[in-house]
Amino acid sequence: MTEKKTPLHAEHEALGASMTDFGGWQMPLRYTSDLAEHRAVREAAGLFDLSHMGGLSIAGPQAARFLDHALVGSFSALRRGKARYTMICAADGGVLDDLIAYRTGDEEFFVVANAANAETVLVALLERAAGFDVQVRDVSAAQALVAVQGPRAAEIVREVLQDAQGTDGAAFDELKYYACLGMRFGDEEVLVARTGYTGEDGFEIWVAAPHAVALWRALLAAGEPQGLVPAGLSARDSLRLEAGMPLYGHELDTTTTPYDAGMGRIVKLDKVSDDGTPVEFVGRDALAARRESAPARVLVGLRGTARRPARAGHAVVQPDPARPDDVAAALQVGTVTSGAPSPTLGHPVAMAYVTPEVSAEGTELAVDVRGRAEPFVVVPLPFYRRDRG
């Protein structure tokens, strides 16, 4: 299968990026070093190309009611200019993808899907649209998505974009977290959202594909004096891991419900549509039953007390007190879903599904790292939380 390229592919090559396949796309893994890019986002700002993400337009008189039916969240109650993190589930409650939905108008929403799942989400939404006065369109190819993440993100974006209302940045300055705003890049309309996947303040900007290069270069130029650097997928992954954010295919998949992943709060079992009618959404019955049942596994954070990191797929074990270093004598109690050294915290961190009996904070466990029991302790998620000042 031919790998797809974003409108910014030539820019990445010109910057010397190491490229990799991700969800069928050629994407920058890193430009200089994983550590330098990670630290730039924590201390200043990083610029990411996210144009591989799926973009879906949902429009029509029953757009909100349709999303109430199709997704686990409540969208009739979502105000214009706001965003919501949500999931699309199968009838059995398994997660097909995690999404962000933006209400861009009274009858218009914009839904962002993960790159590898974009086609799955589109097909599911089209099937679920039957009987609703709504149009579901894939607009991914017409747009590019770039993100500026980090403590200096706001001042960089403000220098490059202008308020659509000509209010000299006042509307942008008032933009709250998980909200979106129409702005301008020169003569071009763009959609700006104060969302992100790094644990830092940041902005995601949708622009028409033909203008992506100009926007990318303008942000690089404006951000360079502030310490902004282009950042690749490797830094994005270590940043989201520190922030305790799930990655589809690791913490989320079709065998996992939102409750398994500790995200039952986003499931609105008793939601009603904008006219007060109770909503029966796809997966509701299975999710209601799951909420009332005892969990078979719990997603936890693990802090390494030695230096060797755990990686996805490694077994989490409860050592035999008589032979604490003997992995063969240990009882497997879970599996690591994501793991890496934490550049910010200076020790290994991991997320893992474990049995409820060993999920309490402070529980001492181990991870089988190439036949050696490496010590870890259960800690709360996220591992890192920014100072919101």
From TrEMBL:
InterPro entries: GcvT, GcvT/YgfZ/DmdA, GcvT/YgfZ_C, GcvT_bac, GcvT_C, GCVT_N, TrmE/GcvT-like. SUPFAM superfamilies: Aminomethyltransferase beta-barrel domain, Folate-binding domain. Residues 8-271 form the GCVT N-terminal domain. Residues 297-384 form the Aminomethyltransferase C-terminal domain. Keywords: Aminotransferase, Transferase. Gene3D superfamilies: Aminomethyltransferase beta-barrel domains, Aminomethyltransferase fragment, Probable tRNA modification gtpase trme, domain 1. The keyword Transferase applies. Its EC number is 2.1.2.10. It holds the Pfam family GCV_T. One of its GO terms (molecular function) is aminomethyltransferase activity. The glycine cleavage system catalyzes the degradation of glycine. Belongs to the GcvT family. The glycine cleavage system is composed of four proteins: P, T, L and H. This is Aminomethyltransferase. The gene is gcvT.
